[in-house]
Amino acid sequence: MPNAPVPEQMPATPLQVQHRASLRDHNSFGLPAVAQTLVRITSEADVRRVVDHPEYGLARQFILGGGSNVVLTRDLDAVVLKVEIAGRRLVEETPEGRLVEFGAGESWHGAVAWTISNGWPGLENLALIPGSMGASPVQNIGAYGVELKDRFHSLDAVDLVTGRSVTLNATDCRFGYRDSVFKQQGFGGLAGKSLITRVRLWLPRPWQPVLGYQDIERKMAETGNSSPDAQTVFDWVCAIRRAKLPDPAVIGNAGSFFKNPVVTEEQCRDIIGRDPEVVHYPLPDGSIKLAAGWLIDACGWKGKTVGRAGVYDKQALVLVNRGGASGAEVVTLARAIQESVYGRFGIRLEPEPIIL
Ligand code: EPU
């Protein structure tokens, strides 16, 4: 029967649900917290099953990707949707570029490594960023002169109220510095309203390496290689990150804990007047980005420990779990840092991870 109709109702695969699930292994800080209900999402159909579910569909929900950008300070009574949608493929290859697609549950670094090993350059500067593919657009991850938005094509998401699928392009995502529509509440914001299922990235041809960042320039000088291929840039970025950022598998952390603050030229002049060394980068719109790591370091925090939380000894922008820390301890340390940076520079540092 080659033309047999597809049955209207496919037999429903049950949702994978866990009650009172420990989240300690699901957050890169390694903080203790329990989810009353944790649902593993392995397909778009699973998201619809949650939306249609008499209990979970109406409950408060929290979307968890790789857990590399959250600080859990308490148990969660929301239904935690743990995104584990797999898959990666080359969608199209033209003389202008390559379109690659990934399930939201794929690891970001695994995806980068896969493209590089296939000889498809473009993501090498973003190597070793922790977290999942689905989380990458949420905060528009970036490193060494490249941001996700520079390689973004589109994404698929499911509306958590209606169960409808949508495809969003870069404009719809409203990307900003470590920001997107998925972090925004209020009018048009999609924070907590929409679950990203698939992400497509565009790798333009011919490949143009991005080598302007100081750490990469240093590698070029050290090796005498001023025209590295993508694999070499990938290896350099991995080495740079391993040298100054802690591996979350060994020391719990969430990468940069604060955003680099942006100030007016006048504010910056005032700070330079008092601290001529302050690391700052002029932005195209005339404002100035300050290195939060430098500000924190200047206040003497590098390597310090408060309770069981601490400031990483090689990079003051990274807070770490010294072993057995609670989310409250991390937040207490973060507040103390914010206060001292405000006291000395008059600048309010804004946390980068989501604090729950
Ligand atoms: N600095 C200090 N002391 C410190 C830390 C930094 O003086 O303890 C100075 C450095 O010497 C440098 C400047 O501050 O001159 C900036 O530091 P770095 O180059 O390490 O970069 P960053 O601004 O700290 C940002 C991103 C990282 C990204 C790197 C590389 C933010 C908040 N962080 O860090 O992203 O990997 O640039 O592009 O934008 C993340 O978001 O989790 C993350 C790790």
What does this structure look like?
The structure is a single chain. This protein is of the alpha+beta class. It folds into 3 domains: 68 residues, 2-Layer Sandwich (Uridine Diphospho-n-acetylenolpyruvylglucosamine Reductase, domain 2); 117 residues, Uridine Diphospho-n-acetylenolpyruvylglucosamine Reductase, domain 3 (2-Layer Sandwich), CATH 3.30.465; 110 residues, UDP-N-acetylenolpyruvoylglucosamine reductase, C-terminal domain (Uridine Diphospho-n-acetylenolpyruvylglucosamine Reductase, domain 1). The strands form 6 sheets. It has a 5-stranded antiparallel beta sheet with strand order 6-7-12-10-11. It has a 4-stranded mixed beta sheet with strand order 1-2-5-3. It has a 4-stranded antiparallel beta sheet with strand order 13-19-18-17, with helices on one face. The longest helix is centred in the last third of the chain and has 19 residues. It is globular, with a radius of gyration of 22 Å. The N and C termini lie far apart (54 Å). The structure holds uridine-diphosphate-2(N-acetylglucosaminyl) butyric acid. The site of uridine-diphosphate-2(N-acetylglucosaminyl) butyric acid has 16 residues, from β13 and α7.
